[in-house]
Amino acid sequence: MQQNIVLSIQDRLQQLPKSERKIAEYILKNTETVISMNAQELAKQAGSSPAAIIRFCHSMDVNGFTELKLLLSANLGQMKQQMYTEVTKGESTADIKQKLQARFVHVVERSGQTLEDVAVNEAVDLLEKTEVIFVYGLGASSLVAQDIYQKFTRLGRTVFTTLDHHLFASMLGSTEKPSVFIVISNSG
């Protein structure tokens, strides 16, 4: 069984055929409701067919609709535990710590579940072979860009970062050496 079926659905959503994408979108919006449905009900609500439900399950590497519902149910329990809300004024230190910890754990688990080893290895190979690394982050993401700059510079790599996007565009346009451009985004 898969660890996180919702992440799998989100990751594969754009590659699915239209009939299966309708099902996926309905499941993502109505996870709790889908758990108590049968295949015919889901097909009707999603504007698809029972046969498309079976194809969707196979696309998700799931043996059938019953297994899909079990995975969704297990995932829903995990999601409820991992849900976090924004820190608000007047909260206790203990509540703030708990929210920040839940957010950190969620991000680390999601990264571990969605990062593919092949993609990570390809990125590492690319970074090893390139001569110049450009790192850009806007707003709070610029702090991460500066951290990457500092870490790679300590490794002896040629790295450029700046908050000025006009200057950054000029630097990118004028480099003649093999280079990599890394964009950091906290919000996706």
From TrEMBL:
<dbReference type="Pfam" id="PF01418">
    <property type="entry name" value="HTH_6"/>
</dbReference>
<dbReference type="GO" id="GO:0097367">
    <property type="term" value="F:carbohydrate derivative binding"/>
</dbReference>
<dbReference type="GO" id="GO:1901135">
    <property type="term" value="P:carbohydrate derivative metabolic process"/>
</dbReference>
<dbReference type="Pfam" id="PF01380">
    <property type="entry name" value="SIS"/>
</dbReference>
<dbReference type="GO" id="GO:0003700">
    <property type="term" value="F:DNA-binding transcription factor activity"/>
</dbReference>
<dbReference type="InterPro" id="IPR047640">
    <property type="entry name" value="RpiR-like"/>
</dbReference>
<dbReference type="InterPro" id="IPR001347">
    <property type="entry name" value="SIS_dom"/>
</dbReference>
<dbReference type="InterPro" id="IPR000281">
    <property type="entry name" value="HTH_RpiR"/>
</dbReference>
<dbReference type="InterPro" id="IPR035472">
    <property type="entry name" value="RpiR-like_SIS"/>
</dbReference>
<keyword id="KW-0804">Transcription</keyword>
<keyword id="KW-0238">DNA-binding</keyword>
<dbReference type="InterPro" id="IPR046348">
    <property type="entry name" value="SIS_dom_sf"/>
</dbReference>
<feature type="domain" description="HTH rpiR-type">
    <location>
        <begin position="3"/>
        <end position="79"/>
    </location>
</feature>
<dbReference type="GO" id="GO:0003677">
    <property type="term" value="F:DNA binding"/>
</dbReference>
<keyword id="KW-0805">Transcription regulation</keyword>
<protein>
    <submittedName>
        <fullName>MurR/RpiR family transcriptional regulator</fullName>
    </submittedName>
</protein>
<dbReference type="InterPro" id="IPR036388">
    <property type="entry name" value="WH-like_DNA-bd_sf"/>
</dbReference>
<dbReference type="InterPro" id="IPR009057">
    <property type="entry name" value="Homeodomain-like_sf"/>
</dbReference>
